[in-house]
Amino acid sequence: MNIVIAVILFSLIILFHELGHFLLAKFNGVQVNEFCLGLGPSIIGFHKGETYYSLKLFPFGGACMMEGEDEESSSNRAFGQKSVWQRFSIVFAGPFFNFILAWLLSLVILGAAGIDYPTIYQVQPASPAAEAGIQDGDTIVKLNNKRIHFYREISVYTYFHAGEEITVTWEHDGKISSAVVTPRLDEESGRYLFGFQGSYGRQKAGVSEVIKNSFFEIKYWISTTLQSLGNLVTGQLNMNDLSGPVGIVKTIGDTYTESKTDGIFYVFLNMLNMAILLSANLGVMNLLPLPALDGGRLVFFIIEAIRGKRMDPQKEGMVHYVGLILLMVLMVVIMGNDIRKLFM
After folding, report:
1. How far apart are CA 275 and CA 15, in angstroms?
2. What is the CATH number of the domain that holds 193?
3. What is the pTM of this model?
4. For a tag site, which of 11, 115, 129, 315 has the least CB within 10 Å?
């Protein structure tokens, strides 16, 4: 069951990503030869118009195969025959649709479960928060220059800025105050904490409030992903902290198993949370300016727009090919690491 749920989530996210490419290709008059979900040989498929729609044997991945995308074509409906900004919009649409999907799912989860406002339920005596003057019922507004919209952002921020002095801005009875606070290391959890709890839980909100906060939800996941990537580059995170398909399936399975005891509603909410996380991550990762990724292709389009002429297709194709090989090697390493962690 865990694997089935993971496959469904992956399929939904990948399908939406490829749908972005597909719709913008059609809008710009590009011929789409095949639109598929999965990799490998086709299990089932059908033609509708010029496009072959298919389901492949292996459930991970998908593609929107356009005329003249990876080969020369003289057709006036070929991808390569379109203007640079038309091609840019088609490629950019994939990651952008992942953000749209994450936003739509955020609407559902915030509307159904409510919003975890950053309101303090209880301040522990003699804690850094208490010494700064923060009181029960106060609302955290900012940490340094970062605007805080959800209580969970506080934990994430202190995790990425462990042991640092943080300027905390909070609201008390309509008055804004701020102070420099240094979270203390909690020996039991191994985390740096301010010394307060936000256990009011999620609160139901009106439609306009849900819509507004759904944008903050996407911003939260995107910024968390970017911060994680930054820490990976600087060495604060390492390869053991990365997860590939195997690790993600295990995480989804563990989340599903733990949620079952709380009822189907919480299974639904936690699976939606996983889908939001994965969709936002896929959008961010695909926009990285690396060869073989959508972001790498967008870099070539920008260079083309600045130069006023296309890069040599063969040279560009070689760059993306090398990038793809390196990406596959990285995926094999990550998958091997995921499998090793299963037996630890």
Report:
1. 13
2. 2.30.42.10
3. 0.87
4. 315
